[in-house]
Amino acid sequence: MARDYYGILGVGRNATDQEIKRAYRKLARELHPDVNPDEDAQEKFRDVSAAYEVLSDPEKRRIVDMGGDPLESGPGGGGFATGFGGLGDVFEAFFGGMGSAGPRKPRGRVQPGADSLLRTRLSLAECAVGVTKHLTVDTAVLCDLCQGSGTNGNSKPVRCETCGGAGEIQTVQRSFLGQVMTSRPCPTCRGAGETIPDPCRKCGGDGRVRSRREIAAPIPAGVANGMRVRLAAQGEVGPGGGPAGDLYVEIVEQPHDTFVRDGDDLHCTIRVPMIEAALGATVVIDTILDGPTELTIPPGTQPGEVSVLRGHGMPKLRSSARGDLIAHLDIVVPTKLDAKQSDLLRKYKALRGNERTEVLSAQSEHNSGLFARLRASFSGR
To answer: How far apart are the first and last CA of the chain?
Structure first.
C-alpha cells in the first residue's frame, strides 16, 4: 500500500507548496538526529524527509495523487538511499535559507560593460548657456582585431574541460548535517563554461582593449554642481565584446566672483552709501546672460533689504523659464568724517527735528522681521 505522504507531514491534499515547506521545516527542527538522538525520532525524520522530497516534486506528487508511490520503483527510482534527501531544505529548516535553486547556467563569455564616471569643471556662465565639452576618456573598447570574439583568426571557443561547460565546480564537505555540497565559479573558464584555446593576439581573448579617446559631451543649459549628464553606450565595453555601459559626466561648478547660486536664483551683494540709500540710486549689474542691467534702488532703502530682478537668474533645466537675480543691499555708514561733513550732518539732524535713538519693543513693526529670523535660526528652520 502506498504511504500517506500528506499524513506524514500533517497537511491536506490541497496544501500549497509553501504549506508543505513550512510543515517540513517545523518537523525537521524537531526530529533531526543532531537535535533529537532518539531512534524513533530518526525513523520519523527519514519518513518526513522522504515525504517532503515526494510532495515538493510535481511529478512525484502527481504519482501520489493517482494512488501510486514514487519511492517504490526500486534502485534508481528516486528513493532515499541514506534517508537524508533534500539536504538544502534541511539546512533551510535550521538556518532559514540556502535552499537549493537548481543548477545554475554558465554566465557566458559576453557580458554587459560597466558604467564610467568622469568629472568636468564648468564656470557659472557655462552652466547658464550650455556648452559642448571635449573630454578625454580612458575605457575598454571593442578589439578591432577580433571584433570582440576573442579568438585568433577562424578559431572557435571550446567547452571548458574543467567544469564540462557548467561554469562552476562543486565540492562536497561533511558537517553535522551530513554532506553539504557547495558550488563556486570554475577557475579555468571563470564561469563562462568555455575557453579559447587560440586567443586573439591583441586582446588575449577578452574581446576588448583599453583605449584613450576624445568625445564631445553636450552639456545642457541650467546644469548645476553635482548633476550628472548621461552619455549612452560611451562607457566600458563588456567582456567578450559585450554592449558598452554608459558614461556619466558629473558637473563641478566653479565659484563666481560676483554671484552665489541657490538653485535657479542668483544672489549678489551691493554696497550702497548711506546718502544714496536715502535719496535713491541706480546701479548697473553685469548679469550672466543679459549683460549690463540697471537696478533701481528706491529712496529710503533700509539695511538688509533686497531688490529683485525677475527672470535674470539661471535658466531652469529643460525649460524656457529662469530664476531671479536677488541683490542684497548693504547700507554703508561712513566711519570717518571731517569737520565740514560732521557740520553738515548736524544741520541735517536739526532739520529732522525730534528723531532720537531708542530701544524698540520686540513686538514693534520694525523688529518683527529681525525676531522672525532669530526664531527661525534657533528652531533650525
So the answer is: 78
